[in-house]
Please model this.
Amino acid sequence: MKNYEVVIGLEAHVHLLTESKAFCGCSTKFGLEPNSSTCPVCLGLPGSLPVLNEKAFLYAIKTALALRCTIQDLIKFDRKNYYYPDLPKNYQISQYDMPLAYDGAIEIESQESKKKIRVKRVHLEEDAGKLMHEAEKGVSYVDFNRAGIPLLEIVSEPDIRSPEDASAYLVNLKAILKYLKVSDCNMEEGSLRCDANISVRPEGAKSLGVKTELKNMNSFKAVRDALSYEAERQIDLLTSGEKIQQETRLWDEAKGLTIAMRSKEDTQDYRYFPEPDLVPFTVDKNKIDQMMRSLPELPQAKKKRFISDYSISDYDASVLTREADISDFFEATIKTYNNPKEIANWLLGDIASLLNARKVSIAKTRLKPGHLAEMLELIHSEEISGKIAKEILPEVFEKGLSPKEIVRQKGLKQIKDTGELISIIELVLKENEKSANDYKAGKKNALMFLVGQIMKKTKGKANPKIVNDILKNMLGGK
Amino acid sequence: MHSKKAISNTAKSCLDRIGAINEKLNAIIYIDKDKVRRSAEEKPSGIPVTIKDNICVKDEPTTCASKILENFKPPYDATVIKKLKDAGFILMGKANMDEFAFGSSCETSCYGPTRNPWDTKRIPGGSSGGSACAVASGEVPMALGSDTGGSIRQPAALSGIVGMKPTYGRVSRYGLIAFASSLDQIGPLAGNVRDAAVLLNAISGYDELDSTSRDVACPDFTKSLENDVRKIKIGVPREYFPEKGLDGEVKGAILESKDILQDLGVELIDIGLPHTEYALSCYYIIAPAEASSNLARFDGDQYGLRKDAKNMIDMHLKTRTAGFGDEAKRRILLGTYSLSSGYYEAYYLKAMKVRTKIKNDFLEAFKKCDVILTPTTPAPAFKIGEKINDPLGMYLSDIFTIPANLAGIPGISIPCGFTKKGLPIGLQLLGKPFDEETLFRVAYAFEQNTEFHKRKPNI
Amino acid sequence: MPDTNPIDKKTVEHVARLARINLSAQEIGLYKKQLADILEYINKLNKVDVKNTLPTSHPMGKIKNVFRKDSAKKSLPVEDVLRNAPNKKDSLFVVPKIIG
Model:
């Protein structure tokens, strides 16, 4: 049997994080009353005219620069003409033959090795409204709140060779966009969407196979699953001697398969032409250079730096640098408590669990780098045990109180005073004479039990090491 | 000249005049008389002005004289309307027009044709025919029109009044229902040059809602109304005086006008605008292409006419088929064709390049002269129905006005004579970009030294 | 630019479909002829040498673009948005289903 190679290109659509829409002043807020964030411009009412949102444009340029694209000398917009009820003017303001930027790249790690996925083009356009269908009544409902939200389309070359790489590409793209703070990339709210082109060809073949276009993938997992399914479907077809139909297919998440979209009756002919309501313009080269210089450190570079500067593992560095919030928190903590490995463990362990459970980003919580540093310092100086630290963390997280303060208020400080510990231990031995005798008789496990009883009595505050020493001493066991 | 006071008295007399003659002329297609009376009382010195039906007036029907926009009331005012309201003008309803401004005769309106007050068997010109007729017949002292290929200047010429297309970008297009976005411009029609200047003063200026409006200084145009044109250089392009296709009487009147201006002290210069003969072809690619896209939104989804059907495509098809008239369909088809894949480069891209040549012709010419003088139209008003089945013949009546739209330059048409049958003839003056002042100055001097603008139709 | 008349019945039908307009057989014939006449006239442009000419998509050419500052303004009241709607429900526009 022949081996097949999978060839994938991705088309990501990203909502830019502007306050107002691309061509009018309506709010971009999600979840408002239907059609309450609309005006003559985004409704496409006769007579209305678009005016470009400066921030949307700057965000687009910023993204393009971070993706190492070349910026077009002359910026122009085009109209893409097609009829659809979610498209108020029946044309979309987009960019056709001269995308805002082109020829960039995103690096991914593919099976331990680095791989460059070329970015073919980046262009700015407006989003369409939202359609809701009610099949029984034979009608659809239209909400234009989303119409006109600035949308950045990022198209890769067909350089991706596996569903896993496709997912890695998206993860890295998302990380970059979030670092730049140009998008919140929320797939559930549709602020990051992705379509894919996929084909397969016998290994070693030069020319590309017939491709299908996949839509309706609403999570990274869906992208991976849909592409895996589709690759397998195509290979099965070819091995059984059948042909692949060039078509658009929808991912059905529930059934776990792709379904051919009922082909539109019409052949697509978008009749692109220059948007006459917007004047072509040039971008100041100096301004671009300046934007280039002021780009933040991007995830790839930061990861490399973390590994070399802080001697943390490749894996830890990857996860820490995926979100700028986390990597910033990490570095801020290091400034006052210089033990990167410990900080990473907490960030990727207990803190990550708290964040996941609450579905918030660390910047939006009351936990500050100073808190974490202080807590680690308390552990380090044996003021509290790691166990106590784990217990107080949620409180620091919720209330934003200093760990020291919580320890003080609750009297959680470790008991290290030998005299105090001896009297507690004597009491426990008296209450558990049998275990004490067991230990003396050689049952080593009895010691664990006794330590447990002491910890229980001291609510976990006794210093376990000192307790151990005293206990062994008192019981005289060797 | 009109003092503000003198005009103010006319708001109510305008209503009387409209009541008396509008049925015969069909110039005004919508007016709320009570509203007019109320605003005349609130604004006793307000100047009455009629608005072409493709300019959005909040909560008033704005239909582009098309069935597809029946009952459409915009929820917003066009920028020019806001400006007129703020400046205390009194809005006198909506004026008839060719459907979506597609036409040169005002015959393609869904409300029926407007008639020329000089001869009611004839067309008033178009597409701003209702605006021109309302002014010429004395229904209103001034009106707003829009000019995509001559739609202000041509009806002004054929109706014997003044009409100006300002420089592209001088007046905001926000709220003007687009025909061809890169060519459209709103402008004034009035009984005399001063009123045209007064109205342009009120509507011009940069608008942050229109990316194509220019942030340039707006002079007071009435200040350029000087009866002195000495040393102004006027170019006369030979291409606008062809052997064939220019009516003898029109040609005679234009040549006489040239002499009048020479007597007033202007310097006449022979010039060439070599790409003139391609302007009409160029226009009939660009304008319908843009129109086909601009008119795509009229599909019955959100507003206007909807013809029910069981699915989206059928609803769109039925609505548009029932809603658009023949000329609108013709232009939409032509524009769709020239943009469709395989033809874009041959037609649209080529036309945009020829447009560059036409524009450059003017820029070259304006190195030698300040103003260019031409006939506004090749012939006086034709009869209603005469050209309705001859689209190409109809298009040719804009042959002298179209180049200014392609180049974006300003142009004015003023009365300069009458045919033996008593039909008005218009003189067109074209100016440098954003130099409407010189046009007003020459037009005013010509008017002050002639009597044509004083003749009124007998209606 | 094509020298011969490129407009046939199929082309008119295709273009009408793209433009969402139904044409009767008679109209197809009429528009075929009229569009052909217009295109023949338009073919004049073939005579112009534009080899080294840049297209003008906008009469004022390359100018500094007008940008809008990114600040949210008041939107239209929902009643105004829906006032002209041929069919509406709650605050939504109602349109016939897409396919069927």
